[in-house]
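Final report, Chapter 2: Outcomes

The project's central promise was a pipeline that accepts a single protein chain and returns its three-dimensional structure in a standardized token representation, suitable for archiving and comparison. That pipeline is now operational. To close this chapter, we reproduce one record exactly as it appears in the project archive, with the input sequence first and the structure output second.
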Amino acid sequence: MLGLAAKSGNVVSGEFSTEKAVKTGKAFLVIVADDSSDNTKKHFSDMTAFYEVPIYFYSDKVGLGNAIGKEFRASLAVTDENLANAVIKKLQSNKTE
């Protein structure tokens, strides 16, 4: 699903771009790599809580980057609401398995 979102141009990645998307109200979902630093995780957790954007911690930097066809990425934001909801459903179904 993330690859589909990336191909359609509805994903921004990297810490600066992700932060900008959240603060401008364009992000509907933020995903942060599990192996990111504690400081990065706290920064995005606090920011997404303030702006009321769902956040998930998933995979590692290489896995997250590969999911969108890029090199390693510590964070990304999905900027399409429908795609974000589809990714959230997928992430939640993976947690219950």
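Archive annotation: The chain has one domain: 2-96.
This record, like all others produced under the grant, will remain available to the consortium after the project formally closes.
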